[in-house]
Specification:
single chain; 272 residues; mainly beta; Glucose Permease (Domain IIA); 2 domains; 9-stranded antiparallel sheet; 4-stranded antiparallel sheet; 4 helices; 20 strands; binds zinc ion
């Protein structure tokens, strides 16, 4: 049974009366590429979702056991299951979602990188692979916050053609940002990367634990060292226009256990 069906018209006391009815998830209509927050009224073991493990932790404000995950961008719409084992499973309907396509023009060296940088690109790929394999304890708590105070520009999930050639998917959300704009931590986490990379330019990665990472790209100045534990809202860096860009902006990405999610939906998500 779906959430909508058993919440309709039911008084709150009835909703939490049985273990099954203590289950909630948000957003109410998750879609391919969306984050998904599961929660239960009572202590909950780790569960299986999309072939990965969701860990539950007590939210200090709502006192509910919450687990944050993502719906893979390539996931087929329809019913998917959160499996807690021992016969406890919960159905979630993933709604269809339409992503746009777009064309961009960038310097040719970012579409066909010169041979001289192939070693660098390979080295940076190895660093990213290692970083994103980290599985630490949960560091985040409560709602996430936007990395800048500025407006969003290019959305997540757009299929992009660079210079009429390379196709890729935009795996983050862009924010307008003149060079030097303060870039803030979206949540509590540890700095795993603060360095210049070929495509990302000035690049910061925060580890929020449980395989959840936020990524900040095209930066001009780093303001936190690798290894530092930062709070939500800490200024991490200044924005810039480094790496594969068409102009100054902040690219903000969110990854959960290898799945990129739509950051705007995460920022709007109520943690409870
Ligand atoms: Zn971007």
């Amino acid at each position: 049974m779906l959430r909508r069906a058993f919440l309709a018209g039911a008084p709150l006391a009835a909703q939490i009366a049985s273990p099954e009815e203590s289950f909630r998830f948000g957003p109410s209509a998750p879609f391919p590429g969306s984050p998904i927050l599961f929660s239960f009224a009572e202590k909950t073991p780790a569960g299986g979702w999309m072939g990965r493990t969701v860990t539950f932790g007590l939210d200090p404000v709502s006192k509910r056991w919450v687990g944050l995950a993502a719906v893979g961008l390539d996931t087929k719409p329809g019913v998917h299951v959160l499996d807690l084992g021992e016969g406890r499973s919960y159905k979630v309907r993933v709604a269809p979602h339409l992503y746009r396509t777009g064309r961009l023009t960038v310097p040719p060296k970012f579409v066909t990188p010169p041979k001289s940088v192939s070693e660098r690109i390979a080295r940076e790929q190895a660093i990213k692979k290692k970083v994103f394999a980290a599985r630490s304890e949960r560091l985040w708590a409560g709602a996430f916050g936007a990395p800048t105070d500025t407006a969003q520009s290019s959305p997540f999930g757009t299929r992009r053609t660079y210079n009429g050639k390379t196709q890729s998917t935009h795996q983050g959300l862009d924010f307008r940002a003149v060079i030097g704009t303060a870039v803030r931590a979206a949540g509590r986490g540890r700095v795993l990367v603060a360095e210049e990379m070929y495509y990302e330019g000035g690049f910061v990665v925060l580890d929020h634990g449980e395989g959840l990472f936020t990524l900040y790209m095209h930066l001009s100045k780093f303001l936190v060292p690798v290894g530092e534990l930062v709070e939500k809202g800490t200024v991490l860096a200044e924005s810039g226009s480094s790496g594969r860009v068409t102009g100054p902006h902040l690219h903000f990405g969110v990854q959960w256990q290898g799945l990129y999610m739509e950051p705007g939906t995460l920022l709007a998500l109520k943690i409870a």
